[in-house]
Amino acid sequence: MTSHRRHDRLGIHSIGEFHMTVPSLDEARRFYTAFGLDVQPDGERGLLIRTFGSPHVWGRLREGARKKFDWLTLHCFADDLDALRSRAIAAGVETIAPPSDANSDSDSDSNSSGFWIRNPDGVPLQIRPGVKTTLDEASHTSPPLPVDGTRCAPYRRVTQQVRPTRLSHIAFATASVPAQIDFCERVLGLRLSDRSGDGVAFIHAPHGGDHHLFAMAMSSGPALHHLSWDVPTVEEVGLGSMQMAAAGYKNGWGLGRHVLGSNYFYYVQDPWGSFSEFSATLDYIPASVDWVAQDHAPEDSMYLWGPDLPPIFFANSEHGA
C-alpha cells in the first residue's frame, strides 16, 4: 500500500525471499512442516516455503553438502530501483551478476531482474521491485482474559496446529555489526532501531514495519542465525514449542520475552544448527514515526524474562563457534 510510503526516505521496504542450501531436503520438509509452514516441491530441484493461505514464496531450499545461507532478495518500490542502484554505486558497492543457481531457478526472469550486490560479509543481495511484505499497520491481539464464573482456557484436545502467518524478520551472525549497520543505512536505506554496543543491532524498514526486519549479532563469520515467523499471541508461541517437541525437535530457547522488540519468543533449533522462532506481538514502527535508536546495556539486549541462554544459541552454524 503506497499510502504508507515515506517519500522523504529512499530504501527497500521488505524481504522478498531467501535461498538456502541444506544437507537434506527430506529433513527440511519434516522440520518446516512440523513448524506449521506450507512446504511444497520446487520442480525437481528443491522446496518452496510459504505460509498457509498466502501464495508468497518466502524461501527456496536446495540440497548440498552443508548448510549455507546463499542469498536474499529484497523488495523496493519500482520507481525507487534506479535511485537505489545509483546510491549503491556511489557508496562504492559493486553490482554483481546473479549467482549461477539463481539463473537456473524456475523463475529465472525474476532472479535476473533488479540488481545484485554483496553485503559486507559477502552475501549476495538482490534488490528488485516487489510486493511489500512488511505490514502497513499492526493489529496486536492477546489471549482472552478470564471472565468470572466461566472457564477461560481452551481445551487441549481440540487444539489445532500452530501455523505462522508471515516471515517477520531474519537474524544473521556477522563478523562486524558496525559494518552491517553502516551498509544497511547507507546502501539499503534501512534504519537502526536499537543496538547493544557492537554485539547486536536491530534494523527496521523505513516505510512501516516491525521493530526489526534484520537483526545482526557478532560472531566468527556470516551465517543465518534464525528465521522469525509471526504468530498472533503468546498462546501460539507456547503451543508452538510443544508442537515442535512432539515432533522430536526439543533443542531451543524459550518461552520468554525480549526487551528490544518486546516480542514473546520460542526458538527451536533446526537440524543444521540455526533456528526458527515463533514470535508474537513485536513492536511496530509506523512509517509516520521517526524512531529514536538507543544503545542499550547488555542485560537488555537479549531478554526480559525466560530460561537461561543455552550455549547452542551462540554457536555459528556455518563458520564454527
Automatic annotation (TrEMBL):
Pfam families membership: Glyoxalase
Domain VOC: 11-130, 166-281
Top-rank taxon, per record: Bacteria
Compositional bias per record (Low complexity), positions renumbered to this chain: 97-113
PROSITE patterns in the record: VOC (PS51819)
Record InterPro entries: Glyas_Bleomycin-R_OHBP_Dase, Glyas_Fos-R_dOase_dom, VOC_core
Spans annotated as Disordered: 97-117
Name of this protein: Metapyrocatechase
Species: Pararobbsia silviterrae
